[in-house]
Every structure is written in C-alpha cells, then in structure tokens.
Amino acid sequence: MSRLRRQVNASTTNVVETKNLTDIKAKTGNLYESIAIIAKRSNQINISMKEELHNKLEEFATHTDSLEEIHENKEQIEISKAYERMPNSALLATQEFMEDKIYYRKNEDDLFS
Q1: pTM of the predicted model, to two decimals?
Q2: What angle do CA 9, 58, 14 make, to 5 degrees?
Q3: What is the tens place of the pLDDT at every residue in 53-106?
Q4: Residue 39: partners with Cβ closer than 8 Å, 6 or more residues away
Q5: Which one, out of 4, 26, 38, 41, has a CA that is 20 to 30 A from the CA of 47?
Q6: What is the Cα–Cα distance from 50 to 93, expressed in whole angstroms?
Q7: Distance between CA atoms of 83 and 72, rounded to whole angstroms?
Q8: How far is CA 2 from CA 6, 49, 52, 111, in A?
Q9: How many helices (H) and strands (E) does the chain have?
Q10: CB under 8 Å to 111, separation ≥6 — which residues?
C-alpha cells in the first residue's frame, strides 16, 4: 500500500468541517500565501493519486481495437469506486497544512523583483 494511501486511510473522516480563515492566515501571516501553499500541495496529492490509480487500472487494461470486446471488470470497478470514496486532495492538503506537515519556504529573490 502506498504512503499516500496509508495517510488517507489514517486520516479519513467523511465529515467536512469549516476552517477558520484566521487560523489559516496565522500560519504564514498572509491568507493568500497560505491558500497558495495548500493549492500547490493539493495538486501534488492529486497527481500522486491519479498516477497510482492509473497504474492500478493499467494492470487490467486490454489493448484491443474492437468495440465489441468491451467488458466489465469487477476488480477495476472496485478500485475506481475506492478512489472515488477518498477525500478530496484539497481537504487532505488543508489538513496537512494545519497540522504543520507541509514544508514550505519563501523565495527572497521574488520579494525584491
């Protein structure tokens, strides 16, 4: 099981809770900077989950050109449903950010440009 999958299973709560914007802002001192960090991490998580799903589904792929040979694969359907039940990558990224599990740094050169 991948590290991301274990993390999702360990922190899965199907309840979405409202986050206090002042708490998010307090982490960096700037709300927009905090949201940008969360968005970048969310994209990383999303790409990782997409690659993992693609690799698992690739095991079941049949490369035929005939439309008549399309059939259902129950394992493939179950894998897809499991990924659909996973929490949104933005929720995972926000949770990681609030728990200080994300490393980020400012690029000082951009401040003076």
Answers
A1: 0.72
A2: 20
A3: 999 888 877 666 555 555 667 888 888 899 899 999 999 999 999 999 999 988
A4: 90, 93
A5: 26
A6: 15
A7: 18
A8: 6, 10, 8, 38
A9: 6, 0
A10: none
